[in-house]
Specification:
The chain is an alpha+beta fold. It has a domain of 190 residues. It is 41% helix and 13% strand. The chain contains 11 helices and 11 strands. The strands form 4 sheets. The chain has a 4-stranded mixed beta sheet with strand order 3-11-10-9, with no helix packed on it. Strands 4-8-7 form a 3-stranded antiparallel beta sheet. The protein has a two-stranded antiparallel sheet with strand order 1-2. Helix 4 packs across helix 8, helix 5 packs antiparallel against helix 10 and helix 9 runs antiparallel to helix 10. The radius of gyration is 31 Å and the shape is elongated.
């Protein structure tokens, strides 16, 4: 900062004097927030205790694709009989009407994105979903990057020019990530700035982005889980039978993944989530300014001290920009995964239990505790009506013949 550019109320300042004072440590506790946190943790503890010791656990759950397959092999659903080639959308269209006629087999080789419902995709990419049909993938990335650059430019433009100079990005970078600066404090808003009301209000406002991202993380996690689960489903259309992956494996079955996803998906997702939460906490945060005024009384020669506490919020332009970059990388990676193709063979059901049930009308000797594969168990040329049947089997089976009918 130039020594000739400092003015207060229009008056040029020649120099300033400062005095070293002893540091003072204080601990501020918002009692209302402490009570709320204790109450929620107590409720969570009670629920966990009831689940563990109250016989609330279902030892035959439907959590994974393997759980659903094992359940429907053991107890077939009569409402989906004769629908072995129908995908989820086709089953829902004919649900409640007359049983569909035998279907002609066509090779299914959809993309990973097709396993996720349209509603999920719209919510996940709502910030550019309006133009998703007109823009290619690289153009979407360029559009999002342009938005991030514009936001950073606006943050640079909003900072005082006389205080930071004209070297734009370098000045913003000098503010650091998550550091408190008088230039990035918010003062032009109608929010309480003193007392417990200010603390509660600012804690709520500064943590609101954390809640929004937590919702987005659950949404993205669900998208990846659905795509990976559908990939596992289509891999059963293989000549070599595979053991089912279930929640509580028995002999001949496989256990679930530790984090419900393979490590190559779960670990990057968790690391990016931790990084995003940290960057968000450094982007928008609560600030308390404690002003202590001390002077000596002329009457009794004793020091008089007055303390004023002002509560507001601060922001960090660089942290905001870095959080946007990380989020862009995560969403771009998921979108790229959605472009992969599934293995040809099985109808795509996603995580829909109705679609899974339609493919599990097996023969009586088929066991879920032995490796299974999906394919033709009754050839089309061996039935009076020319309609074969596809299902899971413990034996090696072939894929349906394109053009043949199955029910």
């Amino acid at each position: 900062m130039s020594n000739g550019a400092w003015k207060v109320a229009g008056v040029k300042v020649k120099y300033c004097l400062s005095e070293l004072t002893p540091t003072r440590c204080r601990l501020h506790i918002a009692t209302h927030l402490v009570v709320v946190v204790i109450a929620f943790n107590l409720a969570k503890l009670i629920l966990i205790t009831l689940i563990l010791f109250g016989n609330c656990l279902d030892w035959d759950p439907l959590v994974t694709i393997g759980d659903a397959i094992a359940s429907f092999i053991k107890r077939p659903d009569p409402n989906t009989r004769g629908m072995c080639l129908l995908a989820t959308e086709e089953i829902m269209e004919c649900w409640g009407s007359e049983r569909p006629l035998p279907q002609e087999y066509r090779l299914h080789s959809g993309r990973w994105a097709s396993a996720v419902s349209t509603g999920r995709w719209i919510v996940a990419i709502c910030f550019y979903a309006k133009y998703s049909a007109q823009l290619t993938f690289p153009h979407r990335i360029a559009a999002t990057l342009s938005i991030l650059i514009c936001l950073l430019a606006w943050a640079i433009y909003s900072l005082p020019r006389s205080s930071l100079g004209a070297d734009g990005f370098k000045s913003v970078w000098s503010l650091g990530v998550g550091k408190i600066s008088p230039y990035t404090l918010i003062s032009t808003w109608d929010v309480p700035s003193a007392g417990d009301a200010a603390v509660v209000c600012l804690v709520f406002l500064t943590n609101l982005p954390q809640a929004v991202f937590s919702f987005l993380y659950l949404l993205l996690n669900g998208i990846i889980t659905t795509m990976v689960a559908t990939r596992e489903w289509t891999n059963y259309a293989d000549a070599i039978p595979k053991a089912l992956r279930v929640s509580f494996p028995k002999r001949g079955q496989r256990s679930t993944f530790f984090l419900q996803l393979p490590y190559r998906y779960s670990l990057p997702l968790i690391i990016s989530s931790v990084l995003m939460h940290w960057l968000i906490s450094q982007s928008f945060f609560m600030v308390q300014m404690i002003e202590i005024r001390t002077w000596e009384s002329q009457e009794d020669q004793e020091d008089i001290e007055v303390t004023d506490i002002t509560t507001t919020a601060g922001y960090s332009p660089m942290a905001m920009f870095l959080a946007g970059i990380v989020l862009l990388i995560v969403i771009s990676t998921i979108a790229r995964l959605g472009g992969f193709r599934f293995k040809e063979g099985m109808p795509l059901t996603g995580s829909c239990s109705v679609g899974i049930a339609a493919a599990c009308h097996t023969f009586e000797k088929t066991s879920s505790r032995r490796p299974v594969t999906w394919g033709v168990v009754v050839p089309a040329n061996r039935t009076p009506d020319g309609a074969g049947h596809c299902s899971f089997s413990n034996k090696r089976v072939d894929l349906p013949d394109p053009g043949s009918r199955y029910a």
